[in-house]
Design brief:
single chain, mainly alpha, 15 helices
Length: about 325
């Protein structure tokens, strides 16, 4: 389940919601339902699909257990929805200040905060119970750990205190790899840890690129994102470093995967590195910064790598290590 730090998996529209309130009962009910759905940040949860499915396919290489896959996705979705909703509860005050988040339901008071808290808590309980029943206890426990880490460690502990917030808080967004692997195997293998690290290292450049574009918003809200407290040259240098770490992590999985994944990881990694270095070079030359390009393309990079892994796993071909042995 992807709970991207500060809810940034995809940029929210900066415009506030100025549409008139519905006057009919069906209209009000639909608007209220839409507000509760918005609390879960459904666009952010897309990474759940990107990360969980390929991980499960790799764990069960060469076969596809569709009932377990869909059950795990549903349980993971509830867990991500819980964490995102509780994040909105904690961040309601700063969401009202930031233009990018002003349309969120609690920022515009479309849902009472107490109701959102209950909604998020119930989703978390349901996620644990569902995964315990449909997969195994370990998967359920990992989801609970993810929710607690995201809410208490990242949102309440790190986000407003340190510019390294997304580095460590991003660990919550890496948990789909562990949940998906444990659902299939009942354990956490080294392959799942590597996939965890891929997302862990990918999160800072992805997030900082967006934060560069909206740094005034973060500054107004008192959130010390790295682009708020450091120069553009420092930020883009850090983006390059973490991009290299991301690509290195994808390469570490090659021995457990096949030639399809190896080829995709190589090409996509070179492309991602090129974008990061171009951004850094542009800043050093004093050119106008266009960080949103890297932000948007980083989504594509991660999707391409994980899709390549999924295709490779379904084909069930020999791994690279077997191929050369």
């Amino acid at each position: 389940m992807r709970q991207s730090p500060s809810g940034h998996g995809f940029a929210d529209s900066p415009a506030a919601d100025s549409s008139p309130a519905p006057t009919t009962l069906p209209g009000r009910l639909l608007a209220r339902a839409g507000a509760y759905i918005a609390l879960t940040k459904p666009r952010v949860i897309e990474l759940l699909l990107v990360a969980t499915i390929p991980t499960m396919l790799l764990a069960d290489r060469g076969s596809v257990d569709l009932p377990l896959l869909f059950a795990t996705l549903f349980g993971g979705w509830m867990g991500a929805a819980s964490a995102n909703t509780l994040n909105c509860v904690v961040d309601a005050d700063i969401d009202k200040v930031m233009k990018r988040t002003a349309r969120r339901p609690l920022a515009r008071e479309a849902v009472p905060t107490s109701h959102a808290f209950v909604f998020g808590t119930l989703l978390g309980i349901a996620s644990f119970a569902w995964l315990w029943w449909a997969a195994n206890l370990l998967s359920g426990v990992l989801v609970v750990v993810t929710i607690l880490f995201y809410v208490f460690v990242y949102t309440m502990g790190l986000k407003r205190r340190t510019s390294q917030n997304v580095v460590w808080g991003g660990a919550a967004g890496c948990m789909p790899a562990l949940v998906g692997w444990s659902a299939v195997t009942g354990t956490v293998g080294w392959q799942a840890v590597v996939l965890f690290l891929v997302i862990f290292f990918w999160t800072p450049p992805h997030t900082w690129a967006l934060a560069m574009r909206y740094k005034d918003d973060y500054a107004a809200a008192g959130v010390p994102m790295l682009p708020v407290v450091a120069t553009e040259q420092v930020v883009t240098r850090q983006i390059v470093i973490y991009t290299w770490l991301t690509v290195a992590a994808t390469a570490a999985l090659v021995p457990a995967a096949g030639v399809v994944y190896a080829a995709v990881a190589l090409v996509a990694g070179a492309w991602f590195l090129l974008m990061a270095h171009q951004l850094y070079a542009g800043v050093r030359r004093g050119e106008p910064v266009k960080p949103l390009r890297l932000f948007l393309q980083s989504n594509n990079y991660l999707a391409v790598v994980f899709i390549g892994l999924a295709v490779d796993s379904v084909l069930g071909m020999n791994t690279v290590s077997q191929f050369f042995s």
